[in-house]
Amino acid sequence: MRLIRSIVILTVAVTLAGPTLAQQKPKPGGTGAVMYRCLDARGKAYYYSDKLTPECYQAEEMNRQGRVVKRHETVRPEQAQKTAASSTAGQKNAAERQRRDRALMATYTSENEIDLARDRSLVIPAQAVKMAEKRLEKANAQLFDLKTQANRLAGQQKAIPPHLLEEIDAKQKEVSVLEAESLQRKTYAESVRARYDADKLRFRELQLAGN
Hints:
By secondary structure, this protein is of the alpha+beta class. The protein has four helices and four strands, in the order αββββααα.
């Protein structure tokens, strides 16, 4: 009789507990209990799925009742590639900087040595600048003479010979070429000087860091 009574009590308890268990919310991530809502850049839903995929870079995790329980943001493939490329470039730049620093410290023992090396390296570029300036000065003088002749004839109301006009045009073109050449040689000399100045500054920084 007691056995029958116990079975009846257990059956009633299970029956009463059934609805309570059924009403419990499933844990997020449980099978069939989660839905992901993908959002665009404006926060508007455009896709629903039961799995969080890389294509869904911004998503809201919802339970069975449609409530948002968690938000997810994943890295886009192209963004990941850019980040990786930037990291690799940064590592290469750092390695190159270290190599140059070692070479700099191994080459010079003082800032004075850097100044002497700069002056030696500037000898040839400085000579090239002077030669270009002389050629330009000569061409400008010749162009001035040709224009003076043309102006004299024009002042006398005489026709300017075609060959004189051709010479003026050719000399103007020559002057333009020489001006460009002179500028190029000056720019190169300035770049040499700037490179040694930068090396001297870096040498000073490395020495201070080593002390």
